[in-house]
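Listing S7. Sequence submitted for prediction.
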Amino acid sequence: MGHEGDLPMHSHDPKELQRYLAAHVDGFGTLDGFEKFSDGQSNPTYRVTSGGTDYVLRAKPPGKLLKSAHAVDREFRVMQALAATDVRVPQVYHLSGDDTPLGTQFMVMEMVEGRIFWDPALPEIDREARGRVYDAMNGTLAALHNVVPDEVGLADYGKPGSYFARQLTRWSGQYQQTATAPLPDVDWLMRWLDEHMVTDDGASSIVHGDFRIDNMIFAPDREEVVALLDWELSTLGHPLADLAYQCMHWRLPHAGHFRGLGGVDRAATGLPDEDTYVTDYCARRGITRPDHWVFYVVFSYFRLLAILQGVLKRGLDGNASNPKDTGRLREIITLMAQDARALAEEG
């Protein structure tokens, strides 16, 4: 699930938490371990041990939160709905209310064992296996977007139509609420996206919202996705949002806070280029290649930097899940805004 070792963010009485979990999670006995995973900025996540069984507890952070942010209830609902589909997700066991031993809402789910790849260049595996990892990701994304929301009880999981227009309004508002310093390039991006808004084509699916390689667990012995994690930003929306968001990550530098594939020789390392990845996805879904691809990628840059701005604000307020990383976020947000603007101006 990630690296461990950080101190818990949530103060709690272990005996009270043990009583709560034993009452709400089948088979839970004594609380033998409670350790925070160090990775992840948004919802603090803990490995909880009881006897010989490990669980994952994912909680809203403490403190004042933006409306609709840190929605562990939505994560729980979508994973519960996808359990019977071709999309591999952890089994979920319990969703709490807001009044809990941790002081915030949380969910408890299965601990899935396997490999997490933090570097999209996949230096730890051989060349042939790298291509299979990317193909598995591609197949997982197509499978998710092929799920019919009505058939899994998610018809009301998001609003229909005008996804990108609504998302631009949402993230522009959240960025403005959390802005800590003027950034003219971000203001320019918001105007550009509004002026170049794509026409709604009616396409709609369950979108993950944070689809990238380190939000997946792969089987220990084969290149197969055994769990897709971190559904906090999921909703009903346009499937190209997920595809462009993943491809946007791979345009980032292959160093620093976010490891992209910028500067990596994909052919030499056995990784598909962006065009091939998009083509394979479209073939799996039986759709034509998208027009206005630059818009979707620029939108992905803006949405991510708006999310990071919220993380920065929480860090400055003392409520970030991973506060040691917030020092570099201001620089990252500035550089992402510059890169996105350059991409938009190039067309």
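Caption to Listing S7: primary sequence and predicted structure tokens for the chain studied. The chain has ten helices and ten strands. The beta strands are 4-6, 33-37, 45-50, 53-59, 92-95, 106-110, 205-207, 216-218, 225-228, 235-237.
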